[in-house]
Write a structure and sequence with these properties.
The complex is a heterodimer. Chain A has helices spanning 13-33, 38-54, 60-95, 102-117, 120-131, 135-159, 164-171, 176-210, 218-227, 231-260. Chain A is an all-alpha fold. In chain A, helix 3 (60-95) crosses helix 6 and helix 5 crosses helix 6. Chain A starts with 12 loop residues before the first helix and ends with a helix. By secondary structure, chain B is mainly α. Chain B has 2 domains: 2-59, no CATH class; 67-266, MetI-like (MetI-like fold). Helices cover 79% and strands 0% of the residues of chain B. Chain B has 11 helices and no strands. In chain B, helix 4 (73-101) runs antiparallel to helix 9, helix 6 packs across helix 7 (142-166) and helix 8 (171-178) crosses helix 9. The chains are: A mainly alpha, B mainly alpha.
């Protein structure tokens, strides 16, 4: 037996090459369609450096007077949206668990899938004319669009619990409601609260964007500073946003890890 | 005998509770909620008062203006093109960034530290912020959108994939090293093949997110269907807005189905 024959055969190279080729051709067609030429790409670094040089120094006075309040508003939008979504999704998550409510669960899953399909900004486009320009519309949009995801994740948590305590409560003569209260909720709450916190982290980013359609928060400020080419002011927006999001991610992430321990 | 019955009928002790922690947490949550609700003028009364006006808007925005549909086809196609370009370039650039950020593969602490923080900062800014920045840098249009999605893709894939890389079986990469393989050979033959299915899966996931994101990039002038949405929205042509939103949803659902079936075949 020669050494060569002991080598394992190369696995599925033909298939992988075909897929790679397909993606490469698709990419070239798309790049051609939107005029992304190699020359434009080569030009890009120089362009970026030029624009970035306008961002220095950041106008921190503007940051303190205009950006900071808008950022706080973004946090408030994200928080209220998360609270609304948490309140609405908790009963839905229980009802959506196949193991507890086999028949209702299907309907709940359908509703949550529909709610998930809408990006918050599209919802905000409808809420802004309904409740007027501002943060309230943003909080509603964030709340509604988070309900879908939180319901889905929550149901999955409920479906994965140990059914022993549930049976024990029912065997002792407890009603279904008592089983939920004493056997299900205590088991699922830490994980569900962790999902709420994670959603809050995502919602901070989502609410930062909503200002673009007039639903409050820091996005509108960034759009205006860039539109009028006040790059030093835009730099203040970016710096403060990065800082605040990093801090919130750290605090929320730490809390989540403690909850799940 | 009676003692045994007593022991069986007394209730088990309640687990001790950390009341300080519970009250503290509830207090924090209530305080945050009060502060937020006041700050943004959150009121159920206002919602109830505005509902009649809202119903008028909803009535007006239905049925969608179907005659507008032919003018959406071009922008919808452009949207998909932006998503493809962002995913391909971002997916390639994410590979080295994820490898250097994986604790078990990185060549040195300094590289790991810098790369990991770079990754975290990329992730703090939402997709539309990148779109606004690139629109300011290279001008309004689909190229700005494609670049924004490139950055967004790097942020998504590198974070998720670096975690899969950290979870691989290190025996194989170590064997490559022990046989005299270089660091690159270790990656190529030992590490990356193990995490390749995850990479493909995350890239598909990023593509789905990108299709979703590319629909709204145009709100800040970065190309695609969002630009049409922005003009119709600002002139309150809600029947057209509804048509755009519906077509976006249908397209997103189709892409998700395709991507889901590919993923199921892979894993």
């Amino acid at each position: 037996m020669t050494a060569r024959s002991t080598l394992p055969p190369a696995a599925g190279m033909g298939w992988a090459t075909q897929v790679t080729l397909f993606i490469a051709v698709l990419f070239l067609v798309c790049a051609w369609a939107i005029d992304l030429t190699p020359a434009a790409l080569a030009n890009l670094p120089r362009q970026m450096v030029t624009v970035l040089s306008f961002f220095y120094p950041a106008d921190m006075e503007y940051g303190a007077t205009r950006v900071w309040p808008a950022l706080l508003e973004s946090i408030q939008i994200a928080w209220m949206g998360t609270i609304v979504a948490a309140m609405l999704s908790l009963p839905l998550a229980l009802l959506g668990a196949r193991t507890l409510f086999p028949r209702i669960a299907r309907l709940v899953k359908l509703i949550s899938a529909t709610a998930r399909a809408f990006p918050e900004i599209l919802l905000a486009i409808y809420f802004v004319p309904i409740v007027g320009l501002g943060a309230f519309a943003g909080a509603l949009a964030i709340g509604i669009s988070s309900v879908g995801m939180l319901t889905k994740l929550g149901s999955e948590v409920v479906e994965s619990i140990d059914m022993g305590p549930v049976e024990a409560v029912q065997a002792a003569g407890g009603s279904r409601l008592l089983a939920l209260r004493y056997a299900v909720v205590p088991q699922v709450m830490p994980e569900i609260v962790a999902h709420w916190l994670f959603r809050f982290e995502l919602n901070i980013r989502a609410s930062a964007v909503l200002g673009v359609v007039g639903a409050g928060g820091v996005g509108g400020v960034l759009l205006n500073t860039l539109r009028y080419r006040h790059f030093e002011k835009a730099a203040a927006v970016l710096l403060l946003t990065i800082l605040v999001v990093l801090i919130i991610d750290m605090v929320s992430g730490g809390t989540r890890r403690r909850l799940l321990r | 005998m009676s003692e045994a019955i007593d022991a069986a009928t007394t209730r088990p002790l309640r687990p001790a509770r950390n009341w300080v922690l519970i009250i503290g947490a509830l207090g924090m949550v209530s305080l945050m909620t009060w502060w937020s609700a006041r700050g943004i003028g959150f009121s159920i009364i206002e919602l109830a008062c505005n509902l009649p006006g809202g119903r008028r808007l909803l009535v007006e925005s239905w049925p969608p203006d179907w005659s507008f549909f032919p003018r959406l086809l071009g922008p919808l196609l452009e949207t998909l093109q932006i998503a493809v370009i962002g995913t391909v370039i971002g997916g390639i650039l994410a590979i080295p960034i994820a490898v250097l950020a994986a604790r078990n593969l990185t060549p040195g602490f300094l590289v790991w530290f810098v790369d990991r923080n770079f990754m975290n900062i990329l992730r703090t800014l939402p997709d539309l912020f990148w779109a606004m920045l690139f629109a300011a840098a290279v001008g309004f249009g689909p190229v700005a959108g494609a670049l924004a999605l490139t950055v967004f893709t790097i942020a998504v894939i590198s974070k998720l994939w670096s975690e899969s890389l950290e979870a691989i079986d290190m025996a194989v990469p170590e064997a490559v090293r022990a046989a005299g393989g270089s660091w690159l050979a270790m990656l190529q033959f030992g590490a990356i093949p193990q995490a390749l299915p995850h990479y493909v899966s995350y890239t598909l996931y990023a593509f789905e997110l990108n299709v979703r994101a590319s629909m709204i990039l145009g709100l800040v002038g970065a190309g695609g269907i969002g630009m049409v949405l922005e003009t119709q929205r600002s002139t309150f042509e809600y029947p057209r807005v509804t048509l755009i939103v519906l077509s976006v949803l249908v397209l997103v659902l189709i892409i998700e189905q395709i991507s889901e079936s590919i993923r199921r075949r892979l894993i």
